[in-house]
Amino acid sequence: MASAAEGDMEAELTRGLQWGFQDLSLNKLATSLGASEQALRLIISIFLGYPLALFYRRYLFYKDSYLIHLFHTFTGLSIAYYNFGTQLHHSLCCIVLQFLILRLMGRTITAVLTTFFVQMGYLLAGYYNTATGTYDIKWTMPHCVLTLKLIGLAIDYYDGGKDQDSLTSEQQMYAVRGVPSLLEVAGFSYFYGAFLVGPQFSMNHYMKLVRGELTDVPGKIPNSTIPALRRLALGLVYLVGYTLLSPHITEDYLLSDDYENGSFWFRCMYMLLWGKFVLYKYVTCWLVTEGVCILTGLGFNGFDEYGTAKWDACANMKVWLFETNPRFTGTIASFNINTNAWVSRYFFKRLKFLGNKVLSQGLSLLFLALWHGLHSGYLVCFQMEFLIVIVERQAASLIRDSPVLSRLASITVLQPLYYLVQQTIHWLFMGYSMTAFCLFTWDKWMKVYKSIYFLGHVFFLSLLFILPYVRKVMVPRKEKLKKVE
């Protein structure tokens, strides 16, 4: 009897322990935080970069390069497995394939084109096979970061075979002169501080890290702990803000009957607030990963004119500019900096042979849209960015060249009003563009756009056609002739 009672007690205790562990499971923790399990895994993986960076600083800095490559490869693969399981074979396959392309095709334009079409084709096929109507964290998320890395590597390797005098100063800086080994390519690709969400950096910059050159004190571990913690702290501020507000400001509400039945001005103001807030999840991830990169030394960017070390080589955000600049071009310049720099360096500037800057910019934005995914919302979002930037430049040029508008713009007492109006227009139509980006499919973003009567398209297309006529009236002829000269 005693034995049976003890058995029952053990069984009950076992069930209690099992229930306790289940209650503490990642899925339940994610649910209690109002997030998905995959999102929580992503956040944990990003924060894991800090202990890994500390280990690297303590035990691997100035050690043999193969040990550093192995460490980066092993930790990156482990993070990939933790987040995506056996689907890590997608990244592994593309890295090995890229190494073979470099070795077998050499420094040729054929290798560059093959890399571009193979890597982009693999990414787009992944988007096609995994696409849903909502944003899901899956293997294609880090793979889009990897795709740019491998294409950039192929172009830099191609430039490394050219005569140095035929390259621009920027191309000379990034050109890969040596022949990367498979282990070097793997370490570069799987570096734990950038594998999941970026930032982008070149093979040359990575190799400087491996050689111990990215430090403000030659021969010693970099004094980067405080700068890294500052970015981490700022990232935590955004994370807390996003966590607190995310249950209350959602894109799902844009599709609700309550939103549709609200007044026109309510719908516009909600879109404005949501458009500002929705970007905070990206800001959080980039600030936290930037801190990891700074801690390892990868963020070292030389010294300023006062001899102070700069740690912004991997900065994906200019937070002050992002929060205060009232222009769309300011947001573009402050947001996802390294990806924009990659597109400028490897795509936009390489289209110089077209002889048309606007066409090159349009093709670059088309590439960015496809790189993000196959949903129509991405195309609409970047089409709006293209249109808005053109109109904003026209308006800035008109105000600068018109004596009347210049005087009005320079009235000090009206500056706060101008700023408020600009910021309202800025974030309203940023939210308008992000609506298509975040809702993905045409039936969803079309429903929201109809509810505000396609305000963004009507406003900016109207200005696109009206501003040239306004310029004829407001800009004196001598100013026009001066511009022609």
Can you offer a commentary on this structure?
- Helix content is 73%, strand content 0%.
- It has 485 residues and is an all-alpha fold.
- Helix 2 packs across helix 3, helix 20 packs antiparallel against helix 21 and helix 21 runs antiparallel to helix 23.
- It starts with a helix and ends with a helix.
List keywords for this structure.
mainly alpha, 485 residues
Question: How would you spell out the order of helices and strands?
Answer: HHHHHHHHHHHHHHHHHHHHHHHHHH
Number of helices: 26
Please give the share of residues in helix: over 70%
**How much is the average pLDDT?**
90
The secondary-structure class comes to mainly alpha
Taking the alpha carbons of the first and last residues, their distance comes to: 106 Å
Task: Please write out the topology.
Layout: H1 2-23, H2 26-32, H3 37-47, H4 49-60, H5 65-84, H6 89-105, H7 109-130, H8 140-159, H9 169-174, H10 182-190, H11 203-210, H12 225-245, H13 251-254, H14 257-261, H15 264-277, H16 280-296, H17 319-324, H18 328-334, H19 337-348, H20 357-372, H21 376-401, H22 403-409, H23 415-439, H24 442-451, H25 455-474, H26 477-484
Helix pairs in contact: 2-3, 4-16, 5-10, 6-7, 6-8, 6-10, 7-8, 12-16, 15-23, 19-20, 20-21, 21-22, 21-23, 21-25, 23-24
